[in-house]
Design brief:
single chain; alpha+beta; Glucose Permease (Domain IIA); 9-stranded antiparallel beta sheet; 5-stranded mixed beta sheet
């Protein structure tokens, strides 16, 4: 091969690789005109909540953030917040003369509308939309809640920035003054959620596999901020920076969808694996999967971060206890069973 031909081939390969990297880049935007997140966030971006703590009423904007930001409790280790908020609540900017919210809600990225809930009483989210985004072969799901109007249909392809709804205050415990958009970016836990729900839960499931219990939300505000600084950032890279809070070993099952949806989670794979150990963040978001040679009969807690505070306060109800007495709760055991249901 002559040097000029070799140089041309190398240039073509480099160009193709760069194009592939560009194609796999996540293009993502905020869903409303409120972009104060990129100017410090705070009360200009987040919708406040109404709190009554031991008779002291307040309206902290911090309750609109992602994470353990609600339901304060006094413990021997000080004040902690025990209720998890899986998304972010984005404050309304535009209202009509009657105070009704007018903010357009737009898709945060290209994707396909997978679910719309038009009946406000069917979910705490009120009217909501779920859009699937295929990034590097894995499915991610953005959720838009408390809508007053939905203007897209299931099966419709949407582009980043396309109007999909109008902000509202549908759902539990909201009023006109607290109109906002609840936004999540989720991983899906199982395609068999509906049969699991019918087996373990009594309340009717009106939203199929797009029920919030089956969607594990990542810290979307932090992801937006990090993506602004690092446009090549992927969800696997983002979650790799999360701390593992606990690990659970699961029986092997052909229905272990998490491993199929997100193959990047699998760090130690084995065709002969008899069980799987899943690492979780404190939020309950799965981070890593490892094959194990030991068979087990039911989900088993194998690791928890040492802390002097009861894990019942520190997780979303999956764990309880301190130190060597930490264990999966009944609720935690059921949620772990969902990952391999039916076993």
């Amino acid at each position: 091969m002559t040097r000029p031909v070799r140089a041309i081939l190398l240039a073509l390969i480099a160009s193709s690789t760069a194009s592939l990297a560009e194609d796999s880049r996540i293009e993502i935007s905020l869903p409303t005109d409120n972009d104060a997140l990129f100017r410090g966030g705070g009360p200009e971006f987040y919708q406040y909540i109404e709190r009554d703590f031991h008779g002291e009423k307040s309206t902290p904007w911090e309750g609109g953030r992602y994470g353990f930001v609600r339901n304060p409790a006094q413990t021997g280790q000080g004040l902690i917040y025990t209720r998890f908020h899986e998304g972010i609540d984005i404050r309304c900017l535009h209202r009509d003369a009657r105070g009704e919210p007018l903010d357009d809600v737009r898709a945060i990225a290209d994707g396909k509308v997978m679910h719309t809930n038009e009946v406000t009483g069917y979910s705490n989210y009120g009217r909501y939309i779920v859009i699937e985004h295929d990034w590097d072969g894995s499915p991610y799901f953005s959720l838009y809640g408390h809508l007053s109007e939905i203007v897209v249909k299931v099966g419709q392809r949407v582009n980043r920035g396309q109007r999909i709804a109008r902000m509202g205050y549908t759902g539990e415990g909201l009023n006109q003054a607290r109109a906002h958009l609840h936004l999540e970016l989720n991983l899906m836990l199982s395609r068999n959620f509906e049969s699991w729900h019918d087996r373990f839960l009594r309340d009717p499931n009106h939203n199929g596999i797009y029920n919030g219990i089956n969607l594990a939300g990542i810290d979307i505000a932090h992801f937006f901020l990090e993506h602004e600084k690092r446009p090549d950032l992927t969800v696997p890279q983002f979650l790799a920076e999360e701390e593992t809070f606990y690990k659970v070993a699961l029986p092997d099952s052909p229905h272990f969808d998490l491993r199929k949806f997100y193959p990047w989670m699998v760090k130690i794979d084995s065709a002969s694996a008899k069980s799987w150990e899943v690492s979780f963040a404190r939020s309950g978001v799965p981070l890593q999967i490892e094959g194990r040679s030991e068979p087990i009969a039911q989900p088993t807690l194998t690791y928890v971060k040492k802390t002097p505070i009861d894990c019942g306060y520190l997780t979303r109800g999956e764990l309880a206890g301190i130190g060597e007495h930490t264990h999966l709760t009944e609720n935690g055991l059921r949620l772990m069973q969902l990952l391999t249901w039916p076993e």
